[in-house]
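Lecture notes, part 5. Sequence design as translation. It can be helpful to think of inverse folding as translation between two languages: the language of shapes and the language of residues. The source text, in structure tokens, appears below.
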């Protein structure tokens, strides 16, 4: 805390945003004067924040009080001094500090998504392994729209015109929003967010930002903060940035591709490669675990009703957990690389996923394969769309049922987390079903 106090004084910080990530990935917490922050060395929040849905509702009372203390007590949120960042868009000198959640006995709270990622990383550490990840975040820029019943439209760029048609990898189309992206890069640099390449993706005004590879917890923190940063930069330029998985009809969905590899914690060498550079058994077992358990862990990577709109046959979002080298039709792609950099690209998570949980789930599946020595299917040489094995759940309801009945997930993530997560997502799904869509009004109103 002394180092943190010095950091705050050097930058003349007057306010601190104390943050925790809820199950959805929304930043919850308090904004407090720096003097109070240092005096209290953290904050208290109702533990129920971790069971709040994206609509602001909660799970039913019987489940609510079985997962939480019946007195509805506060949890203790302690700052992680390695997760302190300035807030470059704030009017006053402000810092944002990511906190970890503990109960009154000092135990990490199971419902915390950041704690879940820490649990998975501890499993790897026990085996002498160090996982490395590199997320890729896709998103759309759109016009502001106050009416949620209206479809989203592309924003107007520097030329004064809206983008039309597919502009994959177009430099000029990306440059239409240079002022916004300059602020984004500047603000990310101030915060130390390790973003790399910007590209224009396939959709209209759809972009992708790549993060440099590194420690999974650090990268999850950075994705958490990057979403805040990009939204603020977009609002400054009178547009909207959205990480919805499928925000626009007839346009591609937005993914959070996760590149993952595993190093020997002592030597730093990849455990995915043999001495001669060939694929190791641990690498194949890692893929085998992802193939076996991703269908059960899918709600961590596709957490919303809208998430499943990405998963359409013959699109850039594969509806499978096949694997293949340099094969984008596979849910698990092995990019061409040196043996030391051999990795798996998990192409299934959506941009709407909570980065802590998507990374935790993806790494846990691979870990289980390594521990249980699970062998993968044969790699796909051509179009993986033609393969029919290892199918994923088609709806959120199916996915939640599979997650709920997976004993391995409950064993490693805990009963409270799995039960609470599934319950939150079911409440959200029930809320969704209460809303009548424009498709129903258009095609059923006068026809049935």
């Amino acid at each position: 805390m002394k180092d943190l106090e010095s950091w705050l004084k050097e930058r003349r910080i007057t306010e601190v945003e104390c943050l925790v990530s809820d199950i959805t990935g929304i930043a919850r917490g308090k904004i407090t004067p720096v003097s109070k922050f240092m005096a209290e060395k953290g904050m208290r929040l109702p533990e129920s924040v971790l069971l709040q849905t994206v609509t602001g509702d909660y799970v039913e009372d019987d489940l609510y009080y079985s997962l939480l203390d019946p007195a509805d007590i506060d949890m203790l949120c302690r700052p992680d001094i390695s997760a302190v960042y300035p807030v470059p868009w704030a009017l006053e000198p402000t810092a944002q500090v990511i906190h970890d959640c503990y109960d009154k006995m000092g135990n990490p709270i199971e419902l915390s998504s950041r704690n879940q990622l820490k649990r998975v990383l501890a499993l790897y550490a026990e085996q002498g392994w160090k996982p490395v990840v590199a997320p890729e975040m896709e998103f759309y820029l759109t016009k502001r729209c106050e009416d949620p019943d209206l479809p989203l439209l592309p924003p107007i760029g520097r030329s004064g015109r809206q983008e039309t048609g597919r502009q994959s990898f177009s430099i000029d189309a990306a440059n239409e929003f240079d002022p916004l992206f300059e602020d984004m890069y500047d603000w990310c640099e101030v915060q130390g967010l390790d973003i790399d390449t910007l590209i224009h993706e396939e959709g209209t005004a759809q972009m992708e930002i790549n993060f440099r590879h590194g420690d999974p917890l650090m990268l999850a923190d950075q994705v958490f903060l990057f979403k805040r940063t990009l939204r603020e930069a977009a609002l400054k330029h009178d547009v909207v940035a959205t990480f919805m998985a499928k925000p626009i009809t007839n346009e591609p969905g937005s993914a959070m591709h996760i590149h993952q590899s595993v190093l020997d914690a002592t030597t730093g060498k990849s455990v995915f490669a043999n001495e001669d550079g060939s694929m190791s058994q641990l690498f194949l077992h890692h893929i085998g675990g992802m193939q076996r358990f991703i269908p059960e862990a899918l709600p961590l990577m596709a957490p919303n009703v809208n998430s499943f709109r990405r998963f359409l046959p013959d699109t850039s979002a594969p509806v499978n957990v096949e694997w293949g080298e340099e094969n984008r039709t596979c849910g698990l792609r092995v990019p061409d690389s040196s043996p030391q950099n051999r990795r798996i690209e998990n192409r299934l998570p959506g941009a709407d996923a909570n980065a802590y949980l998507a990374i935790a789930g993806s790494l846990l599946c691979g870990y289980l394969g390594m521990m249980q020595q699970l062998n993968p299917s044969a790699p796909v040489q051509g179009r993986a769309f033609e393969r029919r094995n290892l199918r994923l759940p088609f709806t959120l309801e199916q996915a939640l049922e599979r997650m709920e009945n997976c004993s391995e997930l409950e064993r490693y993530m805990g009963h409270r987390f799995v039960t609470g997560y599934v319950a939150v997502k079911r409440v959200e799904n029930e809320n969704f079903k209460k809303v009548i869509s424009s498709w129903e009004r258009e095609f059923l109103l006068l026809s049935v």
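The translated text above is only one of many valid answers, since several sequences can fold into similar shapes. The radius of gyration is 22 Å.
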